[in-house]
Amino acid sequence: MDFAFDQARHDRAGNLRRSEELWRTPDLRVLVLGGEHVATTDGPALRWVTPDQAPDGEWILLGDQDGTRYAAVAVQRVPAELNPVSIRTLAPLLHPDELSLAIHAVGLGRWLQSHTYCSRCGEYLYSQQAGHLRVCPSCGAEHHPRTDPAVIMLVTDTDDRALLARNPQWPPGRFSTLAGFVEPGETLEDAVRREVAEEVGVTVGEATYLGSQPWPFPQSLMLGFRVQATDTELTLDPQEIAEARWFTRGELLEAIKGEELVLPPRGVSISSWLVEQWYGGELPGSW
């Protein structure tokens, strides 16, 4: 697959998380992060500091890679002298080995920063298992990191045209595939059918799974599908969709070349990968 975050490159060393003495060693390499921003150096590359150089914050064991142990410290804001850069911007530029560590760190760091109080009793939570568990000292509740499943799908019709749409919050010309969150008690396939029907009023048949992408903005797992429509008349939900159009391959290429349409950035989003899987090759342009 040709998009960011598609494959883990490091051993998460989950068996070490319960013993701080085993993993917080002097030669540990530490990434400082705040929200979706990480410390960087020129190159571009992640900036790794020693445990003594790391600021106070939430510690996270990332694991091992090529004989080296890595961790992260989540802070409110990465100090300016550490050259913070958003992982969204950095993703297509990083080596896959570093990206694997960064996406683990950012995903968990954002969960830690947004889950500071117990949802059962309101008490302040404490971290255990090297940042991979929150525990309430009052009621004893254990809070595990959350991942919200979301489906993202390329819809085609019987003429093999692709359906692309624009969210009302996006600028004119910016199009992507349809997507939406999975609801409780719902299969992934049912979520695909429901979201397509709700957003554009189209009925679709069997959904074929193609691949997945962790998306820590803040804590989603994007599950990619290809699905064929049984009808093509569009009825848009104006709260979700500002525009939607069916495209042949030729029409899509001409729209991109004419700067009438831009797709999600290649190498970052599974959405552009889904479109190029249908198109049969690389498409020009990105936003």
TrEMBL record:
It is an enzyme of class 3 (hydrolase). Residues 145-269 form the Nudix hydrolase domain. Its cofactor is Mg(2+); Zn(2+). GO terms for molecular function: metal ion binding; NADH pyrophosphatase activity. GO terms for biological process: NAD+ catabolic process; NADP+ catabolic process. Keywords: Hydrolase, Magnesium, Metal-binding, NAD. It catalyses: a 5'-end NAD(+)-phospho-ribonucleoside in mRNA + H2O = a 5'-end phospho-adenosine-phospho-ribonucleoside in mRNA + beta-nicotinamide D-ribonucleotide + 2 H(+). Its EC number is 3.6.1.22. CDD domains: NUDIX_NADH_pyrophosphatase_Nudt13 (cd03429). Pfam families: NUDIX, Zn_ribbon_NUD. NCBIfam families: PRK00241.1. This is NAD(+) diphosphatase. It comes from Aeromicrobium flavum.
